[in-house]
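<instruction>
Derive structure tokens from the sequence

<record> Sequence and structure tokens follow
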Amino acid sequence: MTTTPSPAGRTAETIAGRILLDDVLAALRAVRPLFHSEADLQHSFARALWELAPEVGSRLEVPRRGRGKNEHLDLLCVGPLARTAIEFKYVTRRWSGTIGLPPEVYQLRKHGAPDVARRDFVRDLERLERFCDREDQNGLALLVTNEASLWRPQVAGRAKTNDDKFRIHEGRTLRGTLLWAGGAYIPNTQVLRGVYPLTWRPYADLGGVDGEFRCLAVFITPVNEASGARVAAQREVP
């Protein structure tokens, strides 16, 4: 089943102008509530997308050259009239169990370092802003995780951490210049053109300790559909 969105929202909030993200996630969740790795997530997402919208092509690890370096886009979805550039993140805490039909054994490792996970997600947003350089191409940063500290705000009263400006918990808004440790480590500085309110979605609940998985999805508007807010966002978050 292909969802046909309104023309105004075609490139901004859908995958390749053809299918709503929620429809893809629902189909994916039904057959793959869990993934062995980030590569497994990428492949499974592309397969679910193809089953819902076979007219949309999926291209994994697409090279992007510029700024004096070579980069790779995780997934490029190419539809008849629009495209979507997607960056994935799969951050896990240790979890093991057997799920699915036929039964499949999963043994997830603990990534740790949620501060690095936050930094890398923000980097994906910045990369996608650069990659979405044509009117018919939007972007999507998608994070799936059972690391609850990513969607929970910092406990009130605790001292600020190096990644304070990079926090991605529920209700947070990312914009402007984000400084790591107040600017003490310049290589981690990220500048976002857009304004991104963050809303987490449930993905799967497998029970037990660290069995709850959620996902964070942020769409990137094509650069020449951007509003003046992008320019106004060139400031540090207060």
Notes: The radius of gyration is 18 Å. The longest helix spans residues 114-131. The helical segments are 21-31, 38-52, 114-131, 229-232.
